[in-house]
Design a protein that fits this description.
Layout (H helix, E strand, L loop, with lengths): L3 H17 L4 H12 L4 H25 L5 H24 L2 H26 L7
Length: about 130
Amino acid sequence: MTWMPLISFIAAALAGVCGAMGFGSGTVLLLYLTFCLSVDQQTAQGINLLFFLPAAFLALTVYLAGRDLPLRRAGGLLLCALPGAALGYALLSVLPVALLRRFFGAFLIVLAIKEFLSLKKTKKQPTFR
């Protein structure tokens, strides 16, 4: 018996829970796909996008129903995000996979440092609800 289907199910569920709580579920999923399953970076990003779309739609529906999302701000962000996504895809098809992995790793390191410094600056302790 192989444990990979169960482990994959747990990883997907964990990514979904993280996404629902506002964490970067893509980070969890990309790390699992590339490190544990040895999926190439481009395929992992495509899978992550397919995973993200239903979760994003559900989150958008919940936020709109609760009137927690200012539509003007969301529309402006969307207008900026779509060309950014197209540019990212264009770069993805041109750049070598090794460079993409380095960029992604550097992004995660910068994000972790930023989060750590913002906690230190406000002297807030992370809260888990």
